[in-house]
């Protein structure tokens, strides 16, 4: 037998070298992702990045809509048939105009005719009644330019393009005006508006209270 066979093994070094990092690990989540050289994939990556970095500070809500979202009205919605007679009448005419696809001028003409018959009525212009509808319904659309052929919307990484990537239609006409608008209806103002009414607020609480 060796004279050293019963000796304990030597102790490990006090400061062992750090283990080597495994190979083929994905890049750190903090690292800037590498964009593809393929245009359609690169565009998708840029949209994903925009969604990941989305916040109220860099969104498309205008200043007033953002203020209304962060500081909603705390009073319940209560339209009185007598007190709010003029507003309710204008709302009905506005809805009728929308249902029959009439022009804005037709609403204005109807308002003018009513005002001639009832000069003491406090009637709403088309601009004012449209604003009231937005406030009462919570429908605060976000508008962005779109291709008139419905190929794409000029938003995100496509916002500043001069023409459609699919059909080649120009973003603007000869006078510098957009061809068509795309509407996005955010959900948060709609939920807030439903909470202003007692009946719809109870409906929102159905799963909790059933």
UniProtKB/TrEMBL annotation:
Region (Disordered): 1-33
Protein name: Uncharacterized protein
Lineage, uppermost ranks: Eukaryota, Fungi, Dikarya, Basidiomycota, Agaricomycotina
Superkingdom field: Eukaryota
Biased composition (Pro residues): 1-25
